[in-house]
Write a structure and sequence with these properties.
3 domains, 491 residues, 17 helices, disordered C terminus, M1 Pyruvate Kinase, Domain 3, 35% helix, alpha/beta, Pyruvate Kinase, Chain: A, domain 1, eight-stranded parallel β-barrel, TIM Barrel, six-stranded mixed β-sheet
């Protein structure tokens, strides 16, 4: 069964879990439109994750196409203790205390085994429990007790999570579990590490030090306090995620769309990938079709220019994982086919940096406005040229040729990119010929089409992109060159 070349620009990141962890389901998700796969380290054992990663790499070998794997670390979780007699019902106006005690709780108190919370909060702030379903107003706080007033009726059960939206909790972004999971993921050769509950740039700096270049780093923005230092977090990250789950718990719901737009705009301006995640097609966890509101939500993220959209429970634990990917693919194709799409996606201005490479990427977009071309091609070792060109949101596919398999895998989260892992080239003419052949072989162009080729001379010098060339694709390209080269292509 062949795969048609994907002309969709926005990428789809699918989470693998109980509903999709077999080799057969992983391949079905890819064929339905998934471009990259997320392994959620919050659930399952290392043995489970190793099997899932193995399925992805086997699929990569089977289809001879680079596959992108993101390992998502759990991050610190703040949870209350247990209750003596099961769930308690709290009523608006009740007094409720959180303390350092170990005794099981009741309707008046519960233990909170996190001394750092007691040190950080103060009167007038809020505590949110059970994914924000229960809100508490802090009346007083000291090193041993937090006395609150219940703000709404709700049930509270053992070990429910607690969010502290109005204070920065001095918790490390990497727990001991995260460090073990990070070592495991890097040993397994994943391409991206997602860092959860980032609050400040120092959190990212510590993770980057431990990763030491063995994977790219994505910072998940799910704490309001992260918005205060977003520039610093972005500078130290390779990508950002709009993690709307916890962000939507700690921020008032009406503020989340604005935060999403701000994060997307900043990441795009910096030329870094941005992923929008959580509850994109949530109703499809248990239904074969989404709500109209969910379809609009997905489409809006695409119009805003997000590089990638993520499916969580929809593909990990839902009843319709393949259908969810197929639906997201269909929504993206429909949005991108809109005659007004280019106007929407270029609403965010991405000014080029004063470099030759940025000038070439910007010029490629200008060439496409004058000369009809089917594809833009570039050759890169590090992926830098691909990131610069992707930032321009070009109206045609971006064919990226690289001799580095690691690079081919990592750029799978970039908007509009179609990576080809190929042998190195030695001169400009060889690169032009290879670009023509790959454009034909991937189905991104046909004989007679024009293409734009971005190149750097001399070859082998990172960041030296300084040539823009318009080439005509001729019909006998495939009779030459790489027929026996064993190339890998990611559509």
């Amino acid at each position: 069964m062949s795969i048609e070349p994907r002309r969709r620009k926005a990428r789809i990141l699918a989470t693998l879990g109980p509903s999709s962890s077999t080799a057969e389901k992983t391949e079905a998700l890819y064929r339905a439109g998934a471009d990259a796969f997320r392994v959620n380290m919050s659930h399952g054992s290392h043995q489970d994750h190793r099997a899932v990663i193995g399925h992805i790499r086997s699929l990569e070998a089977k289809l001879d196409r680079p596959m992108t794997i993101l390992a998502d670390l759990q991050g610190p979780k703040i949870r209350i203790g247990t209750f003596a007699d099961g769930p308690v019902q709290l009523k608006e106006g009740d007094r409720f205390t959180l303390d350092r005690g170990d005794a099981p709780g009741n309707s008046a108190r519960v233990g909170l085994p996190h001394p750092e919370v007691f040190a950080a909060v103060e009167a007038g702030q809020r505590l949110l429990l059970n994914d924000g379903k229960l809100a508490l107003h802090i009346d007083s706080a000291d090193s041993g007790r937090i006395v609150t007033t219940v703000m709404n009726d709700g049930e509270l059960n053992d070990r429910k999570g607690i969010n502290v939206p109005d204070a920065v909790i001095p918790l490390p972004a990497l727990t001991e579990k995260d460090r073990r999971d990070l070592d495991f993921a890097l040993d397994e050769g994943v391409d991206w590490i997602a860092l959860s509950f980032v609050q400040r740039p120092d959190d990212v700096a510590e993770a980057r030090r431990l990763i030491a270049g063995r994977a790219a780093l994505l910072a998940k923005i799910e704490k309001p306090r992260a918005m205060d230092t977003l520039d610093g977090i972005l500078e130290l990250s390779d990508a950002l995620m709009v993690a709307r789950g916890d962000l939507g718990v700690e921020l008032p719901p009406q503020k989340v769309p604005r935060a999403q737009k701000e994060i997307i705009q900043l990441a795009r301006a910096a030329g870094k990938s941005v992923v929008v995640a959580t509850q994109m097609l949530d109703s499809m966890v248990g239904a074969p079709s989404p709500t109209r509101a969910e379809v609009s939500d997905v489409a809006n993220a695409i119009y805003e220019g997000a590089d990638c959209l993520m499916l969580s429970a929809e593909t990990a634990a839902g009843d319709y994982p393949v259908e969810s990917v197929r639906m997201m693919n269909a929504i993206a194709l429909e949005a991108e086919a809109d005659p007004e799409f280019a106007r929407h996606v270029h609403f965010t201005r991405t000014m080029p940096q004063p470099t030759t490479a940025d000038a070439m990427a910007s010029a490629a977009g200008q060439v496409l406005q004058t000369v009809p071309c089917a594809v833009v091609s570039c050759f890169t070792s590090s992926g830098s040229t691909a990131r610069r060109a992707s930032r321009e949101r070009l109206p045609v596919p971006l064919l990226v040729l690289t001799p580095n398999l690691e690079t081919a895998r990592r750029i799978g989260l970039l908007w509009g990119v179609h990576a080809v892992h190929t042998r190195d080239v030695s001169d400009f003419e060889e690169m032009v010929g290879k670009s023509r052949r790959m454009a034909l072989r991937t189905g991104l162009a046909v004989a007679g089409d024009r293409m734009v080729v971005m190149a750097g001379v001399p070859f082998g010098t990172p960041g030296s992109t300084n040539v823009l060339h318009v080439a005509r694709i001729i019909g006998d390209e495939l009779q030459d060159g790489d027929r026996q080269a064993g190339l890998g292509m990611a559509f």
